Amino acid sequence: MSTTTTTTGAATDLLARPTSFSTAQRPVKIRLDRVTQTFPVRPEAGHRHGTTLTALQDVTLEIHDGEFLALVGPSGSGKSTLLDLLGGLTAPTSGRILIDGNPVSGTGHDRGIVFQQYALLPWKTALDNIAFGLTSTGAPRREARERARTYLDLVGLSGFADRYPHELSGGMKQRVAIARSLVYEPDILLMDEPFGALDAQTRERLQAELLGIWQHTGTTVVFITHSIEEAVFLGQRVAVLDTRPGRLKTVVRVDLDRSDPTADIRSDPAFVAARHHVWELLHSSGSAAVDQESHRTEGSTR
Ligand SMILES: Nc1ncnc2c1ncn2[C@@H]1O[C@H](COP(=O)(O)OP(=O)(O)OP(=O)(O)O)[C@@H](O)[C@H]1O
Ligand SMILES: [Mg+2]
Question: Which residue among 70, 98, 123, 300 is the one 20 to 30 A from 172 at the CA level?
Answer without folding.
Answer: 70
